[in-house]
Design brief:
Elements (H helix, E strand, L loop, with lengths): L7 E3 L2 E3 L3 E3 L15 H12 L4 E3 L3 E2 L11 E2 L5 H14 L3 E7 L15 E2 L13 E2 L2 H20 L4 E5 L5 H6 L14 H4 L1 H14 L5 E6 L11 H13 L4 E5 L28 H8 L6 E4 L5 H10 L4 E4 L1 H5 L3 H6 L23 H6 L1
Parallel strand pairs: 3-4, 3-14, 4-7, 5-6, 5-7, 7-10, 8-9, 10-11, 11-12, 12-13, 13-14
Antiparallel strand pairs: 1-2
């Protein structure tokens, strides 16, 4: 019988448990994307709190393309020394540390009027209303190269791996979606074409970091958005192609941000205090995982260890990542490991986001 707290191996990574901290924007980096003492302490608290593998909040790969304030950067080599010191501290606490890298695109409300924002097609984002500039082939090459260079820097800085962000309506996930991607060239139309930029990104990353360095991707099991979004079977196709091309593992999220027409259908859902409403992407993720051999990480509403253990032993899902519960309670994993399995402090109110940093509302209220 598999357990949440057994040691496993993914390539060069030894994982002390099956519980990950999914990438979470903390809004605590400086204006240029550099680490701050406050942000570094957040990650140290997580490592000391028992989580086996930490994925950083997304890091922007082009200096002029920062989709949110206070997010990490990885757009030039000046970041390498500070990140090297940082990764050494995290690994000294017994946790793996992976950097998530991103091109944001139109999923932003951060100074959209003052910069050119690229997208697969010039269609408005349903939540942010930003209309991007349709990308040329040169733009695509620029983004692919920027992902590759970001991965190179992450490896040089001592990160245990890198995760390509292809979810949550950021650029790469937009290419997969028929709503965002209306192109008539080799990057649009069929799922084979809509996924082309992702394969090119993985191949460029592999050319920089080599065949053995852990390279993950975060993508959707489904957009749950009728014919406007990525379907489960299309996601399975993309995942199998990524596996052929050397992806190390896949973290599956899902949902859409069309809040007006599909309320509570995004990646962060409320009303999940009871176990039947939790782990809401696990079933679709398990369907895809049955056809893969690479490790699969499930994210989305995980907060009951007994339920996770059941999924672990009845499906091909290998690992579980969490964001909000660990934002509220960074020592949650140690608590579970000690045998205290009371409900997490987090109640999924989705009020984590604040002007001076994204922290649990209970912690903001206490100050």
């Amino acid at each position: 019988m598999k357990t949440l707290f057994e040691t496993t191996q993914i390539g060069s990574m030894t994982l002390k448990n099956r519980l990950w901290r999914s990438a979470t924007w903390m809004k605590m980096a400086d204006d240029k994307g550099h680490l701050t003492p406050r942000l570094e302490q957040i990650y140290l608290d997580l490592a000391q709190g028992g989580v086996g593998t930490i994925i950083t909040g997304y890091a922007f790969i082009l200096e002029q393309e920062q989709p949110n304030p206070g997010m990490l950067g990885i757009y030039d080599d000046t970041f390498i020394p500070e990140y090297r010191a940082f990764t050494q501290k995290i690994k000294a606490e017994g946790a793996n540390i992976i950097m998530q890298i991103v091109y944001g695109g139109s999923a932003t409300d951060f100074k959209p009027e003052s910069r050119e924002i690229w997208g697969p097609s010039a269609v408005p984002h349903p939540l942010f209303k930003v209309v991007p500039t349709e990308m040329t082939h040169e733009h695509i090459k620029t983004v692919v190269s920027a992902f590759a260079q970001g991965a190179r820097r992450a490896k040089a800085a001592g990160f245990d791996g890198v995760q390509i962000h292809g979810a949550h309506t950021y650029l790469l996930s937009q290419f997969l979606s028929p709503y965002y991607n209306r192109r008539q060239d080799e990057y649009g139309g069929s799922i084979e074409n809509r996924s082309r930029i992702i394969y090119e990104t993985l191949e460029a990353v592999r050319a920089e970091v080599g065949p053995d360095y852990p390279v993950f991707i975060k993508m959707h099991c489904s957009d749950e958005w009728d014919d406007r979004g990525l379907s489960v079977e299309e996601s399975l196709y993309v995942a199998k192609e990524l596996e052929k091309r050397g992806i190390t593992g896949i973290e599956f999220s899902g949902g859409n941000l069309d809040a007006k027409n599909h309320p509570n259908m995004g990646p962060m859902r409320g009303g999940i205090l009871k176990a039947p409403h939790q782990s809401y992407f696990a079933e679709k993720t398990a369907h895809i995982a049955r056809h893969l051999t690479v490790p699969v990480i499930s994210v989305g509403g995980h907060r009951t260890p007994e339920k996770l253990e059941n999924i672990l032993n009845t499906s091909p899902i290998d690992y579980f990542s969490m964001a909000r519960p660990l934002l509220s309670e960074p020592g949650l994993i140690n608590r579970w490991h000690r045998g205290n399995r009371e409900k997490p402090r987090c109640v999924a109110c989705n009020k984590c986001w604040g002007k001076n940093g994204n922290v649990c509302i209970l912690d903001r209220a206490a100050r």
